[in-house]
Amino acid sequence: MRYLTVCLKFFRARQRELEAAKEKHWETVEAQPPAVYNCVTGSLNKLVVGDVKRYLAKFLPQYPFQETLSCPRVDMTTSRLYQSVMVFFRNYLPALAVDLLSRCTGRRPRMVRFLEQSKSAMEAVRFFTTQTWEFSSNNMLLLHSRLSPFDRQTFDIDIRKINWESYWENYLLGVRRYLFKQDPSTIPESRKRLKRQHAVHVALKTLLLLGFLRVLLGRSKVVRQLLQLAMGLLTQLLSILRFSSS
């Protein structure tokens, strides 16, 4: 009986010690902040606005959209007013003119709708493209260093391997196919159309320059004849290009 009493006291003492240790453990856990693992590129594989502009300028001409009015141009600004003015004059006015011409010729107007789709896509990412956040990736790097070779291959979380140039190329192809519903098979024809538009754009600017020079140097008969010849050739070239692009 005495032996049983001693065992019971010993068991109760051990139970109190375990409960005290448990309470101390939970107090320590609650005092420590939770571990956060940020798998972000900001501090490891940074992508800045200048990089995005360079990649877009490279890949937009390679994978042009079907309903483009002119050669793609990438402008980035922090001014909403400047953006609104440029979008109105560079995009909406030409789009309205093209849609008006389409209505007059019995075709379906599509350019303004295309611009609205583009605007919706830009507005969807505006908050994230105009804000800056700084996250620490130390815990993620520590976790990655402790993984076995097999786990590193299976759970590849090393974002330092991301190739941003390849990423943006695939990004534009995805936007073209899944957001604007344009089949990849139309890319070659869109490239040809973009080249013709570029030629028309250059010819128009040259024609305007020659007209300006004619006004300034029109007193010379030889210069006037040369300018008239050049303007005539450019006008014929524009007619051919517009006919081939229609």
UniProtKB/TrEMBL annotation:
GO terms for biological process: long-chain fatty-acyl-CoA metabolic process. One of its GO terms (cellular component) is peroxisome. GO terms for molecular function: alcohol-forming very long-chain fatty acyl-CoA reductase activity. It holds the Pfam family Sterile. Residues 91-182 form the Fatty acyl-CoA reductase C-terminal domain. PANTHER family: FATTY ACYL-COA REDUCTASE CG5065-RELATED, MALE STERILITY PROTEIN 2-RELATED. This is Fatty acyl-CoA reductase C-terminal domain-containing protein. It comes from Rhipicephalus microplus (Cattle tick).
